[in-house]
């Protein structure tokens, strides 16, 4: 029992240390930007896949799920890799500039630890956000594949989910900027409406 308590205290202490390091690295605003940008990309990519398949008459649930999951994984890996490399380069440069200014080695210091933690956290957010967003958009096709929804209804639900997610992202941005949240939500959802209209017109043309 004592060992379990000690481990619990150790984990709690690690989380507290991580939070302090994140504050030192000022990673909150950066992570928010990555989250919004990549969730937006994931949502619209998945929507484009769904409506593109629908437009050319191939709204097969198995195809959409396979392609959607494949695209999600690609977006996620790309997001993790690119954010890690870019953030690591920026953090390393900043730390070296500070070392030059202070004439000291900052390796293994709190700043160094904070920089490494921030890099990993930003990469994680950058990778997870598009994957989660895309999977949520294509989720109705899991139900359609099981035979509980028609493909047409799954498409409509997928479009509705997209609009809701985009609207919520807009609200999040509105709250962050302390501006009109409904206006921001509407602006974000408008992107989904534009893509939906374009791809549905493609169905008519094709």
What does this structure look like?
With 206 residues, this protein is mostly helical. The protein has one domain (16-205). It contains 7 helices and no strands. The radius of gyration is 21 Å and the shape is elongated.
Itemize the secondary structure elements and their pairings:
Elements: H1 2-25, H2 28-55, H3 61-102, H4 110-138, H5 140-145, H6 151-177, H7 181-205
Précis, in short:
The protein has helices spanning 2-25, 28-55, 61-102, 110-138, 140-145, 151-177, 181-205. It has 206 residues and is mainly α.
**Hey, roughly how much beta strand do the residues contain?**
under 5%
Main β-sheet description? none
Radius of gyration: 21 Å
Say how many strands there are.
0
Instruction: List the secondary-structure elements in sequence, H or E.
Output: HHHHHHH
Number of helices: 7
Question: Unreliable segments (pLDDT under 50, ≥5 consecutive)?
Answer: none
Helix content: over 70%
Q: Ends: how far apart?
A: 68 Å
């Amino acid at each position: 029992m004592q060992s379990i308590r000690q481990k619990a205290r150790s984990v709690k202490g690690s989380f507290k240390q991580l939070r302090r390091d994140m504050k030192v690295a000022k990673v909150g605003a950066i992570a928010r930007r990555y989250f919004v940008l990549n969730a937006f990309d994931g949502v619209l990519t998945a929507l484009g896949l769904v409506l593109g398949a629908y437009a050319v008459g191939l709204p097969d649930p198995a195809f959409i799920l396979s392609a959607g999951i494949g695209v999600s994984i690609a977006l996620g890996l790309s997001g993790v890799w690119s954010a890690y490399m870019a953030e690591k380069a920026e953090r390393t440069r900043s730390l070296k500039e500070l070392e030059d200014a202070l004439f000291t080695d900052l390796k293994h210091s709190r700043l160094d630890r904070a920089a490494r933690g921030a890099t990993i956290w930003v990469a994680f957010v950058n990778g997870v956000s598009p994957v989660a967003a895309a999977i949520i958009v294509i989720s109705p096709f899991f139900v359609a594949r099981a035979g509980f929804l028609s493909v047409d209804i799954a498409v409509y639900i997928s479009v509705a989910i997209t609009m809701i997610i985009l609207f919520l992202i807009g609200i999040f941005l509105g709250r962050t900027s302390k501006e009109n949240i409904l206006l921001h939500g509407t602006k974000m959802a408008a992107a989904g409406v534009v893509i939906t209209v374009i791809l549905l017109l493609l169905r008519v043309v094709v």
